């Protein structure tokens, strides 16, 4: 079976896994796990990734990554490559550490976000390594629950915002939500085209990406962006006019090729706000 093409665009959300070569461990001890998380922190900062959840098992890992700049493959090459080099130096070995390329499932955020977050942190329970997810130190579960420090690169606020406005109550609902899925059927029954988790309409909208037909003859981005207006000039004094501002945000992204995170930083807004405004703009057309 031919492997699916990578589907990458600004604001895409992925469940990412990568396994050890020949099913061998990629983490031999806790120092390796800390080394991997340090590498993930560097990659998240460099590529503007938003990591919503993670879980490190012995011979593989799970990540839930949002890419404001549509750069999953570039970031994953950096993550696995740098960690492999560091792992090999530490253990005085050579050769591949990971089995082939990573696996990435594109997730429809507004329909499956919480489900995938829950799936990621329940991996140790499904593997029978622990009975309860809070017993596994090497996942984002305890940090999201408020039982461990939250590293700067881990974004727990969005998960909790789906469960309540008060943080302590949202964390308790998160605990209940995760525990409800222990022993439940897999979420991958809704998987489409080997690489998409979402509704039928979501998958249909990405058909061209899956079959490899999209943007084949498109003008290269580097050429298309030559001579584009700066964000300061593009927005001018309209930043304060909400209706006009929202349209300009969409224009900045779709017509002028600015990333959502660049627009967010210019307007001093949260990235998720820009993402929501763009989505609303598309729905209104």
Low-confidence stretches: 212-220
Indicate the structural class. Answer: alpha+beta
The largest pleated sheet is described as: 6 strands, mixed
CATH topology of the largest domain: Alpha-Beta Plaits
What is the highest CATH level, the class of the largest domain? Answer: Alpha Beta
The number of helices is 14
Beta percentage is: 5-15%
**CATH architecture descriptor of the largest domain:** 2-Layer Sandwich
The CATH homologous superfamily of the largest domain corresponds to Transposase IS200-like
Compute the CA-based radius of gyration. 20 Å
How far the N terminus sits from the C terminus, by CA atoms, comes to 38 Å
Output mean pLDDT: 87
Overall shape: it is: globular
> How would you spell out the order of helices and strands?
EHEEHEHHHHHEEHHHHHHH
Strand order across the largest sheet: 2-3-1-4-6-5
Total number of distinct structural domains: 2
Helix content range: 40-55%
Number of DSSP strand runs: 6
Using brief descriptors, characterize the structure shown:
47% helix, alpha+beta, single chain, 6 strands, Alpha-Beta Plaits, 285 residues
Model description:
This protein is an alpha+beta fold and 285 residues long. The protein has 2 domains: 198 residues, Alpha-Beta Plaits; 62 residues. It has a 6-stranded mixed sheet with strand order 2-3-1-4-6-5, with helices on both faces. Helix 12 packs across helix 14 and helix 13 crosses helix 14. It is globular. The two termini are 38 Å apart.
